[in-house]
Amino acid sequence: MFEYTPYFLPIIVSTLILFLLGIYSFRLRDKVEIAGLFALQNLAMGVWTLCYALELSSTTLEGKILWAKMKYLGATTGPVLWLVFSLYYTNHKDRLTLPLKMLLGFFILFTVGVVFTNDLHHWYWTRIFISPGFPESQSDHGFYFWVYAVGVYSLILASVVIYVNYYRTVPVYFRRQSILLVLGTFLPLGIRILEDFVGWDPFPKVDNVILFLLLSAVLYAIALFRFSALEIVPIAHSLIVQNINSGIIVLDVLGRVVELNPFVLKLLGSEESHAFIGQPLEVVLSSGPKIKYSPQMLEQVEEEISFTRDNRASYFIVQVAPIRSERKNIIGHIISLVDITERKYAEMELERLARTDVLTGVTNRRHFFELAEGQFGVALRYNRELTIMLLDVDHFKSINDRYGHLAGDLVLQFVAQQCQNHMRTTDIFARYGGEEFICLLPEQTEKGAVELAERIRQMLEQAEVKYEAQRLRVTASFGLALIQKESGLTLEQLIDRADQALYQSKKNGRNRITVWQTASSEKG
To answer: Which of 91, 220, 438, 518 lies 20 to 30 Å from 327, alpha-carbon distance?
Structure first.
């Protein structure tokens, strides 16, 4: 049988709020890792308050004893889940070790077991009775009641300490969340402390802890709905450092390493950081990238560096910045390494494509002039030998017309490859346009240039280019022009002389070499 008591209403309101918070949080569990824990914690507290409300309204001693025992299903799991939630919420779940999990689980199971078997040993209650005018059952406590009380006090105090430390390290917005969670957790415990140690008992006929859970539920609701305590959660500094795809090295004021993240460890080919902690930076990076650093650095500096490991170069933007105390004193430095390797290789590939002829893979005309101007200027300044060689594939149009453009492309690729095979590393060879190629030969005499051209001419004449079932014969005409000791000569004029010599080779029957000497001296 049940009867209404004035204390029933606030407690049942508290129960409803806690259950609603639990249900709402549970629906967020797929999006927010900690929502499930928060839901379980609120549901456990809801069970605690519901059973207490039923105990108050029960009219028989047996009924009150039953609900007094049932409420410990929530009164044990609630504080434990709150500690676990506080560790997850503040990004300290690594502290929830296996021994601690086992201890917390044992505390729940053993306490519930002691409560429900109390009639056999009276460890928790030595006597339970009803006093006139008191809606809840009265009892004399056994020794385990005090064990339980110390355990719950310790769990809640630990949660409060965790939140206070967390409060000091987060931005203002998250402080508003955490202060509500701290107050919501500590409020019932604070009331119990005042009751036990000061004698202040605002509601002497009921359990003040459970009654004040109503205010806790309201504070949780504000934290959840007003400040999005579950949806908007700050990410711990340690998680950022551990998971960021950049290198982080923290140094003390003497330049010794106090922290480095997995990215740096991977760069150093190591898995353990303890060997590097406390070591000078130059020792830690002895086999790694070279970074410009001095403990006397007063401002942030930035540089681009490269580092080669396993025959592959990696590229980084390195920033070294001082860490200052609240009094603006330098207390260390932080070094960040941003990996730009993929971007660098993409830039180099774009650069290569910009200076390379797509079809033949040799230098294109634009890049040829960029390189040739420098060599030509050196030759003029220091009176050195230099030759321009132009070659043109003979009857190329007829190859395209007879066999198609794919055959023509194959011929051009073959000619480019064979010419490059005969060049020195200092020679600048490029596709000049269409079926025409150009080469600048620094430090090359007329005799040496003619010999090179003759080797290439003979090789092409004797070679066959295979295209499908056809064997194509290829020849080329050459025009050479040597730098002259005359003032005002430009690279374009020298190339024009080579072009005139090439025209003479074509005019005289092709497959031959002409050196510019007013376009009249032919060799070949």
So the answer is: 91
